[in-house]
Amino acid sequence: MESTASVPHLQSQLLRLGHSPDPDDAFMFYGLATGKLPSGRYHFEHILQDIQTLNERATRGELEITAVSLHAYPYIRDRYALMACGCSMGDDYGPMVVAKRRMDVEELKKVRIAIPGKLTTAFLTLQLLLGKDLDTVVVPFDQILDYVQRGAADAGLIIHEGQLTYQNNGLVCCVDLGAWWLKKTGLPLPLGVNVIRRDLGDEVMREVTAILKASIAYSLEHRDAAIRHALQYARDMNTQLADRFVGMYVNHWTLDFGPRGREAVRAILDAGSRAGLVPACETVEFIG
Q1: Which terminus of the chain is less hemmed in, N or C, by CB atoms within 10 Å?
Q2: Residue range 150-182, pLDDT digits in tens
């Protein structure tokens, strides 16, 4: 006779959840990853990969739920819907261009820049500032600081915790793209977002979005424990610095874009479309 203990497992729906092995994503999904937050009829398998890889996998529709760069959304919107929770928003801060010496915008247009991926929102924003015809080389995001330090590129476009640690490599910030975007538009800069595959159906998309939102809320309510969990993914950061970084990218924006955040999403996608950098998105649907 089959034991009743196995029934919930057999009846649960497996969903693969892709996100970066970084302290902010680890913090966000602390409740789910540790089993402290009930997930109802769903079982989540956490797939930890860098954002460039997740962007590429999303173009093939491989994962049911995944973090992606907002830059990737116009290319995957037929397969995926944008979740209203889980975003990383740069509010007067964001990806930075760093180098061994200060360079202005005109000089940056002429040098080689290491970038973390061509579908990252950081690269889209960089192109909005510098133009389409740039000399770039794709380098894994966690190797860019060393790459620039040893002179393999003239400058580097940094994301994640490198924004707080670049000085350790003897580098200086030439431009903060989040600050530039706010000055230009009056809006925060939406960077990473969560998407869910449309073929799951409306009911599942709504239920799963609610669970992910609950996980974010749980982490914010149990901040100390969630930070300790996130520290295992914090490169070159102590607890204080990791807490600061998490606070930059997991906050009220992450619980819900809100009206201003939704406006920011439309603004950067529209700007990218007008510049010929991304396909036009006439409508942007938010689940949740």
Answers
A1: N
A2: 999 999 999 988 888 899 999 999 999 999 999
